[in-house]
Amino acid sequence: QLQASGGGLVQTGGSLRLSCAASGFTFDNNAIGWFRQAPGKEREALLCFSGQLGSTDYAADSVKGRFTVSTDDAKNTVYLQMNSLKPEDTAVYSCGRVLTISCPIDYYHNIDYWGKGTLVTVSS
Q1: Burial of residue 103, with CB atoms counted within 10 A of its CB: 0-12 exposed, 13-18 middle, 19 or more buried
Q2: CB 118 within 8 A of CB 94
Q3: Contact at 8 Å (CB) between 101 and 31?
Q4: Of 43, 59, 64, 74, whose CA is between 20 and 30 Å from 91?
Q5: Model confidence over 58-110: pLDDT tens digits?
């Protein structure tokens, strides 16, 4: 199972850290993808993190340089640190377990478990 948390209301330019806690598997065995869905829009793939390789592959240019990933192995949790937030970052954020250890180009088509999303609202 996966559970995303940490969303909330933040002002433009602020920061938030989202958590994706896993149970039943470790991030060494499966990569994790972060996604978001803004109101009225389709789900957008943001990035894929491979714990085994220690690498992050960004799918969305809009978050490069602002969003980063870290982990707490003891808590089996992956964090999404979001800085310099903008109103257009407002969305429900969710994490998904990738079928593979690494991040394939089409990782968003290889998700077998989804965590419940968490809402991030950025006020202008």
Answers
A1: buried
A2: yes
A3: yes
A4: 74
A5: 989 999 999 999 999 899 999 999 999 999 999 999 999 999 999 998 999 99
